Structure formats: structure tokens, C-alpha cells
Amino acid sequence: MEKHTLNLQADKIEMILAAHKAPARVWGGRLTPRTVQFHLAPAANTKLSKLETLTEEIALALGAPSARLTRVNGTLSLEVPRADSRFVSLDELDARIQSDDQLRRIVASAGTAILGLDSEGVPLLLRLSSPDVAHCLIAGTTGSGKTELARTILASLVRHQKPRDVQLALFDPKLHGFAPFQNVPHLLFPIVADPDHTIVKMRYLVSEMERRSQLLIERPRIVIAIDELTDLMQVCGNELEELLLRLVQRGRSAGISLIACTQKPTARAIGSLIKANFPVRIVGRVASTDDARVAAGIGGTGAEKLAGRGDFLLIACGQIIRFQAAYAGLKV
Q1: Pairing state of beta strands 88-89 and 256-262?
Q2: Which of 7, 206, 279, 290 has its CA 20 to 30 A from that of 250?
Q3: Which residues are within 8 A (CB) of 46 and not within 5 positions of it... i.e. 6 or more apart?
């Protein structure tokens, strides 16, 4: 975006806030692949709650579909989607990572996957082998990019780690999201779609977890990935929920991780399963503030105002990191 355009937008923001008796100065900003962040310095008598109520007014004035107030590391920002937004290519990001010796070694370690770029333009990685991670919930409505993000995670595991280091157990009720991986050598068994077959394979994974726990085996790391978790639980019933609970509660010490995707992160649908069992939450655009709170495990994230199409929040260890997911498409 041109500097002249950004300056005009900053002036409009200041004018709108002043007109509504909530003065603030735009003192800087940051461009990400999908958004523009305008850093704000509110006047002493301007309340944050007042600024929050004016986000729709600002979005309208800027011709943007939405605006979102964020606060990261003490910096207050107003964030709006870019009209010239672009995707982050996994191939391009991968090439960048491979050119850095330290990052290349990290991404080759068992269970480490590429997520995308954070708001500073730094590659963001997910280390499933970390004691603080183990399991990850990816939530978002249709169009948020959750399945594409899961594909990116799986693609990066397959590209950089050998089957002796990582094995995949994939569950895909629609046989669409994970179809590109049906022939990779990392598969523990063929991709599962049938509900009855799902129960059989989950029982096997629980028994394998117990065997590995007894023998103190952690390698190869087993990564279980489930697309459309809520739909699968509704079809398979309580037995599936009980099996998943055992896996997420005891799988960490046996080298087993679970990555689950859902577009319906409601407390009624998956509340008992996700509560305290997913240390890492990745939340894309969701339908409501209630869904955002359940998916993130905390309130006030503003996930309902995300731009979609790969715009995510990573919630882990008490931190919230905004990032743009890398896009792998159908290429493994």
C-alpha cells in the first residue's frame, strides 16, 4: 500500500475519534499480508470501551468490511483488512526457513510444523513435542481457513520429517480435507472416513498409547488429525468422546498428539472434551463472541472479527499471537 493512502486513513481515524469525543493519535503502524494495524495513543480522558464502540464507524469511513481493536505487549492498535491482501505461500515460507540453518534444524525435529507468519513477519512454528503443547484445537467457520491450516501443518511434517520420526493417523469424515495425504508413507493406516471404522481405529490408538506408556516409548511421534471434529462426535456418540479424552489426557507422555478441527466450537458440542485438554488453541473467524470464548479458552480475543481466509489467533501459555497461515493448497 502507498504511504499517502495510509496517511489519509490515519487522518480519517483521528477525525472520527475526535468527532465522537474519544480523541487518540495514530503514531505508527504495521502492514501484514492481510491487515493494516494503526497504533493508537488515546488521550488521557479517552476510555478503551469508547474506542471499541467506534470500530464500526471507523470501518465504514475507511471503506473496510470491519475494524478490530487489539492490544499486544502494551501497544493499542486498530486493525483493518487490506484491500490488496495476499496469501502466504507455504512453498515461499518453506524456502525462507530452509535458508536459515537454525530454523531448518528446528523444523526437521519430530513433531515440529510450520504455521505461517506472525504480525512481525517472523515464521511461526508449532512444536508438538513441547510439554506445553502436545495437542492443538483449530476452530473457525467455513471460509476461515482451518482445514487449509491443518493441511499446512501436515504437509510441513511430511516434507521435513521421515516416517521413522512421525506417523500420521488421519480422520476425515468427508474424505476431502486430508485427501492429498492418502499416499504418503507416514500414514499409520489409510485415511478413515466411516464412523464405525473411526471407533475401531480410535480403540487401536488408545491401546497403542497404553503399550507405549508401559514401555516408555515416545518415537515415532504419532500425530492424530481430525477434520470436522464436532460432526464426527455427533455421529459416533459418547464412545468416541471417551476415547478422545483418554488420548488427550495421557497421550503426551506416549508421544501422541491430537490436532482437531471444528467449525462449531460451542460449549454444548465439544465443551467437555476441549476444556483443559488442548493447551494450544488456534482460532480463526467464528460466528459469535461466545464461540470465540469457548474456542480460545479465554474471553475478549475478538476472534469473531477476524478477516477469515487464514487470519488466525494462536493462544498458548497465556499469550495471544496474531498470524497469517501459510497456504499449501493441495500440494503435499
Answers
A1: unpaired
A2: 290
A3: 17, 22, 23, 24
Nearest CA among 192, 188, 198 for reference residue 175: 192
Domain end: 23, 51, 81, which one?
A: 81
3-state class of 195 per DSSP? helix
This prediction's pTM: 0.85
Q: pLDDT tens track of the chain, all 332 residues? A: 578 888 999 999 999 999 999 999 999 988 887 788 899 999 999 998 999 999 999 999 999 888 888 887 778 999 888 877 778 899 999 999 999 999 999 999 999 999 999 877 889 999 999 988 989 999 999 889 999 999 999 999 999 999 999 999 999 998 888 999 999 999 999 999 999 999 999 999 999 999 999 999 999 999 999 998 988 988 998 899 899 999 999 999 999 999 999 988 777 666 666 667 889 999 999 988 888 888 888 888 888 888 788 989 999 988 888 899 999 876 66
Residues 175, 74, single domain; the answer is: no
One domain, residues 174 and 66:
no
> Domain check: are 178 and 299 in the same one?
yes
Distance CA 112, CA 154 (A): 10
